[in-house]
Each structure stands twice: as C-alpha cells, then as structure tokens.
User: Fold these one by one.
Assistant:
Number 1:
Amino acid sequence: MSSTYSLGSTDAEHRRLIQLASHEEHCVLDACRRAGITEGSIALDLGCGPLGALAALAHVVGERGVVIGVDASEAALQKARSLLSIPHVRLVHADVHDIELEPADLAYSRLMLLHQADPSRTVRHIFELLKPGGVFIAHEASDLPNHAPSSEPHVPAMTRVWELVIGAARARGANPTFARNGRTFLEDAGFRIESHRAYAVHYPAATGYDIPRIALQSLRPVIAKHELASEDEIARLDRELEEAKQRADVQWVASPLMFEWIARKPY
C-alpha cells in the first residue's frame, strides 16, 4: 500500500487486521465463486497486510494455482509468513503501483483503495495486472459517518472513531471514496462491472468493540500530528468502547458498511 496508510504496522494493528480478515473469509469465498474463479488460477491479494485474503484465495485456487500477496510493509509480510505455511502462496514486498507480475486471473483488495491518494491510478494499474477476461474484486468500506461501524445498543464512540479513521486517511492525502464511487473509477479504467452490493460483517461483541479500540490507538500519531482529536477525547472514546465490551445486553456489533465491486477486464 502507499504511504497514505495511516494506521501504522504495530503488533496491535496487525492483530486488528487479522481479526478483520478472519471474520471476512466467507465474503472472499462467496465473491470468488460468483466471479467464476476456479482451481489453477493466479490470484493477487493487493495490500494483503499480515493475513488479508491469502488463506481464502489459496483455498479457491488450490494447489495447482498461485496466490501472490503484495504489501508495502515488510513487518506485515513477516507476520503473514509466521501465520501461513502454504506452498502456493508467495509474498512480495512492494508498493502496489510498482509491481510487474505475470498477468493474473484475479486481483483482490480489501480496505486498500480506502488509503490511496489516487484511486484512479491504482485501479488503472490493477487493470494492467490482469489477463484479458481477468476479474477484480474490491471489498471497500464507505467513508460516510452514517455508514460507520455500529452496534445495538448504539455506542457513539464507534461512529467517532470511524470519523477519525477517515479523517486521518484524508489528512495523509488519501481519497477514501472508492467504495461508493466504484462504478466511475472502474469504468474509467476500462473494466466492465458484473456485480455490486453492500453488506456488513457481524462480529462477536468483544471482537467488534476491540477493533475500533485498536484502530484508535494505531491512529494516535496521525491524530496528534494533524490535531484531529484531543488526548482527553481519545481517552474518553477508549473508555466508552471498553465499557460497551463489558455490557451483557449487546445484541450485535457490525463493521462499517462495505461495498463489493466485481469487475472484469474485457477479452
């Protein structure tokens, strides 16, 4: 990923990303099935981080296929190497814009385009990484506050932390609008859109409240640099999320509103 990624590469941040990935494998498997990705395919996981969709894609393409995970953080890739021991998964330390690989059948991204300064440039490069007829699957979160992570009962801190995530991305130079403007970005790059939908992932309460708590701590350097929130507010948000995690009446906890875009490179 580019340097606009605002949450760093700490052990806690890796834990947050692994939690996200572990609860979203079914979304990857379902999207690949609907996109027609089969055994023997070459699949890219762009911005894979410490786990990403690597395990799910390895299952989809099977031992006759290849999965290539790409990330700009060597620390994240080292964590991925410690978690996965799959012969047909290869990891590449690079910015997604700089890689030149054998043309792939599938390119996948999750929460990667959210952090790009120029999503148009990124999507155009992804187009070039695919074979004619290749598929791009993007699972990206909405940047709107009313689409923030949520729960029942409502916890205002979850909305505020999401505002800080998006604010930090913008402060670092990112344009986090791909999720809801995917049609324009994809069609301008030459893709043909085959499917799009919105969904949310539901988590166990402890996990669902822990994810924004970790994100809040990961954001602290960027929050301080750009004066996005005070230390008192950060402490209050952390307390609110911890108190929510201890409640006995939690009905559900959900991710931000996610948008799935499945698009194909014409033959």
Note: The mean pLDDT is 93.
Number 2:
Amino acid sequence: MPSVEPSLPASADSAPSQSQPPIRERLILLVLASVQFTSIVDFMVIMPLEPELREAMQLTPARFSLIVSSYTFAAGLAGLLGTIVFDRFARRTAFLWLYVGFLAGTLACGLAPNYSILLAARFLTGAFGGVLGGMALTIVGDVFPEHRRGAATGALMSSFAIASIFGVPIGIWLGQTYGWHFPFIALAILGLPTLFLAARGLPVLDDHLRHPSTEPSHLRLWNALSEPNHLRAFALTVALQFGSFAVLPFISPYLVSNVHMPKSQLLWLYVVGGGLTLFAAPLAGKWADRAGKLKVYRILAPATAVVMIAVTNLPPVHVAVAVVIMAALMVSNAGRMVPAMAMITSSVVPHRRGGFLGANSAVQHLASGLGASVAGLILGKSATGEFTHFPIVGLIGAAVTLASLWIAGHLRIADASSPEITVEESLAAAAQGSVDQAEPYLGGDPA
C-alpha cells in the first residue's frame, strides 16, 4: 500500500515543525475507533450466538469454550511476540497488516463449514485482532501530545460502548435472522472501507526505527517478567480475567437454555449493560480517585462475586429481571477493573512500563482463555438441553474474585508520582474488563 503521508515523529509531545503538514487527528481517531469497533464486535458477538452455533454444529459446552478461548490464547501468544517484533516496523505498516489478518480471519469464520475450521479461524482472528487494540493505543501515544492524550484515548475507547449498545445487538439480530455466519461476513465487508481509509489516512510513524531503544525487546520482556512486584501484578491480572471469563462466555446460552429467555431478547443484555457501563466506569474512576483505589476495589470485587453467584444460579424469571442482573454483573465487573488497572499500571516504574504492559496484555488473554476452558470442562448438558454445573462455575469465579482481594492488598505502588486515573482511563479499563480488547501499548513508555 503506497505511503501518502510523510513520516511523523514518535514523540508528539513537542510541537511539530512548520514544514510538517497538520496531523488529521479526527481522521486518525475515526480510523482507529472504527477498527476497534469491528474487533470488539467480532469478539463479543460469538458468545450470544452460542444457541445458533450449538444447533448448527451440535456443540458441547467444552467445544464452545474452545471457540472462545482459542481467540484469547492466540491473542496472548501474539501479545508476547508483539513485544519483541512490532517495534521493528513502522506503526502504520504493522497496523495495516494486523487489520488485514483480522479481516481475513473474520471472513474465514463466516465461511467456516464445520467446527474444526471455525476453531482454526477463531485462532487466526485472535492472533491478529487480539493485538489491534494495543497498536491503536500505540499510535495514539505517538500522535497525540501528553496534554491531549487522555481525551484521545477516551474517544478511542468510546468504540467499546458503541459496540456494546449497537454493534453486538445488530450482530445478534443478523445471526438469529440469517444464520450465525452472516455477522462475521458483514464485519469483514464493513472493515474493507476502514482498511482503505487507514492506508490513506494514517501517518507512517517510523521515528522509533531511526532512534531505536538501546535495550533489546526480549530483555525488556524478561525484566518485566522477573520483578517480584510485577509478578504480584500479573497474579492480580490472572485473578481478574480468570474469574470473569469462567462465567461471562456462558451466560447467554445459560439464559436461553435454563432461564428460558427468548433468543430474540438477548440483545437487550448488551444494550442495557453496555449503556450503564458507559456511565458507571467513569464514576468508578472518580470514586477511586477520591476514596483510594484499593478501598474501592475491596468494595466492588465482593459485589462482583455476589452477582456472579446470582447469575449462575438464576431460575426461570422474567426477561427484565435477567437483564437487570446481567447489567449488574457487567457494571460491577467493569467497575472493579478501573481501580485494579490503575493499581497494576502504577506497580511498575515508568521506564519499564512499555514491556510490562505488553507482557500484562498477554497474561490477560491467556488467563481469559484458561478461565473459559476450565469452565467448559466443568459444564455439561442435561437430556433436556439445560446447562449443568453452572453454579459450580459461578462459585469458582466468585472464589477467584475474592482471592484477588488478598493479591491486591499485597501489590506495591512503584510510581507514587504517577497521575491519577482519568475518566478516559476509566473507560479504557472498563473495556478491558468486559471485553479484553483495550490493549496496552506495545512498545516504549506509553507516557
């Protein structure tokens, strides 16, 4: 793809020279948010489409859990590789190839004729799509100066709310009306204009190639993995993601099979839950600033555990009750991620933050896949098609969530002078907790 923009400096904190053309910042944010939108919808829509997939492929809970976890496992492995590889390429080049791979994987999902090919296609999609968010945030960090970077991040992360409120419900409707293949084919087609716009509108961003870091990427990764306080941060990340993804992927099929919720009503789970999360996450960030991150986490984490148990033991109820309880889980789960991610980010000194966040991204994905896989092995189906042992999965998720309180209490803040979490960072953390798509930076210090 031909370059149409001159290379822009990676350090946008200083004002550009008069010889440089103005950065089309709104266009850049539009491109990045559009890419985030398609990748988030692709990841989220697979879960409420479980009833259609089950009927088409005779899926067991274990086989369905592999479809979910294959994406996250691939994203985790790609995240580890990305900390070493991606800084060797211009940002636009890496971003475009990642998006091409993601669209190819999404199209392969839509065209998959059987379970084996669908599983391989989800792995391919995760390998590329799982790190798109990190590259998008890297571009934001390269283009926008520090004093406007928070607002740019917030605008980028609004794609999570839009995906939850509009994208996923539309995807559910398309899947229920025209078959489970159609949402993925539609996403692949929808991504083509965005790909063209990205090739034409994104700056090259290759200044880091002319001024490479003196520390090898693999050494940054090892330093991030070997620090004891970092290990405690990784342990908190594992507890956060394992507890969530042991439960979240199976809620939609459980509501259909056990609670007898009509499939046509599933979209309201995401409309209501996503809408409330959009407002609740920034409020959680402001609350954490006032009352303290650890204190707020100690309130919201037990609340999440209680709602997990309630959801996984839900009997047949009215649709409105199910929607309210599911929304409570989405809000509490996203809300606890706000102080947790603030503490995790502050557990590392700034000059090591790039490698640490890259490694933490991989840990997030791998823990999410492990949670879904373990839950899939525990769950079963009765002769009438209802899920069995879901209350056990709920207890495991709640127990891991409560155990995270001890881990969080032992996490030490390494950078006491770091700025407090902003509203934009709160929304990013909410997206990370609910979808695992708000990736951290993939190279260099994000600040």
Note: The longest strand covers residues 380-381.
